[in-house]
Amino acid sequence: MQAKPGMEGALALRRWRRAAKLSPPTAAKELGISERMLAYYEASTHAVPRPILLASRALASGLDDRPAMTRDRWVSLVGNLLEYERGVPVVGRMVKARNREGLRDFLDFVRTGPAPDLALTDPALFQTLRAAVTRAQLGGLAKFHVSEAM
Hints:
single chain, mainly alpha, 434 Repressor (Amino-terminal Domain), 2 domains, 9 helices, 64% helix
């Protein structure tokens, strides 16, 4: 008997949480989502997004889902996001300058968004970065990748 479409993600998420012996509130916090969304995902009323499944796998493996970034790269990324939020065409500027590392950081951040723990340590920055990421996602930037030919 095959599982209904979307059920695989729910089953994998539920298995991860139970294997890790996490309560729903703790699991939701670890994944950076609300308890309500976790409940929806586990009940299969909403499809589990791929980043959530990948995060649960990374957590199960003991891996951080975000690679370490140097302070200089972080400062540059935040500056680019703040400029993007103000309407400055930073993506075009990075492409023109052939800044592969900066563009890759920017697009990766657009896909993943700010870490949820930033909301606790610097709520204003979290809100600003979240707004910039949302604007970039709505603009379609989440689907782009830095090509090797750049």
